[in-house]
Write a structure and sequence with these properties.
about 150 residues, five-stranded antiparallel beta sheet, 5 strands, about 25% strand
């Protein structure tokens, strides 16, 4: 069977994220991934972080974020397109910070991740394998190549 695909235009406000998560879980279940599987957890976490970052920092055109998810073999890929060409910036959140850990979370659960220029800004992507497990060290977008970087 070929790749399966889901595409969304997501409102950039935080209140749209719970509905996206619920819809994505339903899609993953249709694709045969269990709602309680490690991979589903990681996919939803990464999707949520990418969409939230795009809404917060990406200046999406018309207030909409393009989100795409597809299953190819046993890997789920996610891409988010936003309205700025600025590279995602990994920051070290302090223990009392309420935000700032998104890229660390993405890099710890994704087999690979990165970004690339897109005609309307940039496309940020991540690939989640069937057995994601958080790593002790966090790396993301640290290579000097501004076009594509991966872990």
């Amino acid at each position: 069977m070929g790749a399966r695909r889901a595409v969304w235009a997501v409102d950039s406000t935080p209140c749209s994220v719970p509905a996206l998560r619920a819809n994505a879980v339903g899609v993953l279940q249709e694709w045969g991934l269990g709602a309680d599987s490690e991979q589903t957890f990681a996919v939803i976490l990464v999707l949520t972080e990418l969409v939230t970052n795009a809404g917060r920092h990406g200046r999406p055109a018309l207030g909409l974020i393009d989100a795409e998810m597809w299953l190819d073999g046993d890997k789920v890929s996610i891409t988010i397109t936003d309205g700025t060409a600025e590279a995602p910036v990994l920051r070290k959140a302090r223990s009392d910070d309420e935000s700032g850990r998104g890229l660390e979370l993405i890099s710890s659960y994704a087999e690979s991740s990165g970004y690339e220029p897109h005609r309307t800004g940039k496309r940020v992507w991540a690939v989640i394998g069937p057995h994601p497990a958080p790593e002790e060290g966090f790396l993301l977008l640290t290579t000097p190549d501004p076009v594509r970087s991966a872990v």
